[in-house]
Amino acid sequence: MTVPFAAFTSPLNWQQVSLLLDTVQYFADAPKWLSIPDEEKSSIPVPMTADTLRAMLETLDEEDAFTPQVFTIKWEPSETEDSGTLIVGLPSGEQIRQPAVLSQFSPV
């Protein structure tokens, strides 16, 4: 089973998530691996869709656009080698579960 990245936490603010969403929407017909910063500011490639980013953005306050909130990001492999579920833990404690086929995503 493929695990494309180790679980990590990412402090993201409204502006960052908004820019990531703009990037994904620009490549709507060709899903991309997004570079998400971890707590050490290293970039981790993650297969993330616009729907997931919209849900993340809804948890953040545009009035406080530069204050980061902590998201947890992990991969749950499935029985098929190339697929699994991206799990994003929101600051509220809720989770977003995004099924993904890794071969459908390409580097930005």
Describe this protein's structure.
The chain is globular. The protein has helices spanning 14-26, 50-58, and strands spanning 8-12, 32-37, 43-47, 69-77, 83-89, 95-101, 106-107. With 108 residues, it is of the alpha+beta class. The chain contains 2 helices and 7 strands, in the order βαββαββββ.
Write the layout of secondary structure elements.
Layout: E1 8-12, H1 14-26, E2 32-37, E3 43-47, H2 50-58, E4 69-77, E5 83-89, E6 95-101, E7 106-107
Parallel strand pairs: 2-7
Antiparallel strand pairs: 1-4, 2-3, 4-5, 5-6
Task: Characterize this entry briefly.
With 108 residues, the protein is α+β, with helices and mostly antiparallel strands. It contains two helices and seven strands; from the N terminus they run βαββαββββ.
Q: What are the salient characteristics of this protein?
A:
alpha+beta; 2 helices; about 110 residues
* Low-pLDDT segments, ≥5 res: none
Strand content: 35-45%
Straight-line N-to-C gap: 24 Å
If you compute it from the alpha carbons, what radius of gyration comes out, rounded to the nearest whole angstrom?
13 Å
Overall 3D form = globular
Strands of the widest sheet, in order across it, are 1-4-5-6
Give the proportion of residues in helices. Answer: 10-25%
Q: Whole-number average pLDDT?
A: 94
**Record field, number of beta strands:** 7
Topology as a string of helices (H) and strands (E)? EHEEHEEEE
User: What is the tally of helical segments?
Assistant: 2
When the domains are counted, the total is 1
Structural class: alpha+beta
Largest sheet: 4 strands, antiparallel
